[in-house]
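To whoever is covering the structure queue this week,

Two jobs came back overnight. Logging them here so there's a record in the thread.

Job A:
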Amino acid sequence: MIHIKTQILDRFSAMKLNEKVEIVAKKCILVPYEPCHVEKYHKWMEDEEIRRLTGSERLTIEEEYEMQRSWREDEDKLTFIVLSKENELDETSRMLGDVNLFISKSTSSEDESEEVTEGEVEIMIAEASGRGKGIGEEAVSLIISWAYKLADQNVINLLISPFQNLSICVFRARITDDNTPSLSLFEKKLGFNRMKHSSAFKEYTLELPQERLISHFSTFLDQNSQICEYKITK
């Protein structure tokens, strides 16, 4: 399972921030998680290995629809469905996976007395056809850059008073120690540094250096994508 942490929000529905947002990039398209996506998402989660890697429980289709509805209203979660760019296919057929951002409070890795706001990212490319093409790398880069841009523009902090005094933006990743492809993605391609290992959770914690965040991810969204108004096409 993969996680990332970033300054973002608390008492404002995260999902509502992207409910009309479509991000069109070079290799993939990110769209909000809608009811029309649930059936295929449920089929993905029937796979035991996918559930293990994402730390997910098996749900009924009814529970999956309820989960999608709850994510829509959650104050601490932001979800995009990852689509391929094969325009001749309908939207459901183009679904490759999802990328998520969960929000909570934590402490700085350098000073535990310093409070920061975290976003925990999970990336899943469930379709084999979407793997090994740089799509996961692009999807993670887009959500980091999009969240960074929102925070940098004070879009979020102006709305959420409890976080107005938090100035540090920290991105981290937690990856299970047997998930070699994800470790390679975050270390070799995204530039994260391995910080520690938890034997209890059997996972590594990685952190994105601030200089890498500023030099690469602060401009990635503007240089590599176009933001449009999302319209459900099914």
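Job B:
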Amino acid sequence: LAGFRRAYPVAAYLAYAFDRMGVAAQLHSGVGHMDQARTFLPDDALLAITFAPYSGETVDLVKGALGRGVPVVALTDGPASPVALPGACILPVEEVDFGAFRSLSATLALAMSLSVAVGARRGAV
């Protein structure tokens, strides 16, 4: 899971939801600006969340994952996003900005749907 700055609450919610369902997930932190894409295992996938202004950490992690053949699902604001790359599954989410603040209601609703679907598929729900 990758979501920094304004996308962090969504990534943190997903980490919590997956943990409650017993679904293995790692919330990437970006600590030390290390190349966390190197931590991916063969059966891993990356769920990335980023919106304009895009988080460089998330963009780099998506590029690193795709470069290693790791499947990527990205919640982002549209096809012009820097994570809308060949090989990534993009789930576009429109939100309203209130000054410097982005509403996260639609993004959290999509994240909740995704987490429940993953849990159901794995028999955890």
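Note for Job B: Residues 1-29+91-125 form one domain.

Please reply-all if you pick these up so we don't duplicate work.
Q.
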